Amino acid sequence: MAYEPEPVDEVCAVCGAEVDARQAADLGLVAEYAGRSYLFCGETHRRAFLADPALSARPEEPKTV
Ligand SMILES: [Zn+2]
After folding, report:
1. How far apart are CA 11 and CA 18, in angstroms?
2. Average pLDDT over residues 46-60
3. What is the mean pLDDT of residues 25-30?
4. What number is the average pLDDT over the span 18-45?
5. From ligand 1's centre to the CA of 39, what distance in Å?
6. How far, in Å, is the centroid of ligand 1 from the Cα of 20?
7. 34 alpha carbon – ligand 1 mean position (Å)
8. pTM summary value
9. What is the CA radius of gyration of the chain?
10. In the chain, what is the straight-line distance between the N-terminal and C-terminal CA atoms, in Å?
């Protein structure tokens, strides 16, 4: 197979889509918030995150709806 199995364990902070960390860095699809770095699948979600980081960057807790 021509597909290289590079481990991708980074996800978009907004939608949870898998993100290639190096590609995201190349495209500037990164943001820092509260001392952490976040990656994004696209500029749209980066802007959404920056518009309301506290909403998007919630810790991994079970959310009761
Ligand atoms: Zn996304």
Report:
1. 4
2. 80
3. 95
4. 93
5. 9
6. 12
7. 19
8. 0.71
9. 13
10. 43
Q: What is the secondary structure of 7-65 as a DSSP string?
A: ---EEBTTT--EE-HHHHHHHT-EEEETTEEEE-SSHHHHHHHHH-HHHHT--S-PPP-
- Gap from CA of 13 to ligand 1 centroid (Å): 7
| Cα–Cα distance, 40 to 46 (Å, whole number) | 6
Alpha carbons 14 and 57: distance in angstroms, whole number: 8
Distance 59 CA to ligand 1 centre (A): 17
63: its two tokens = 């959310």
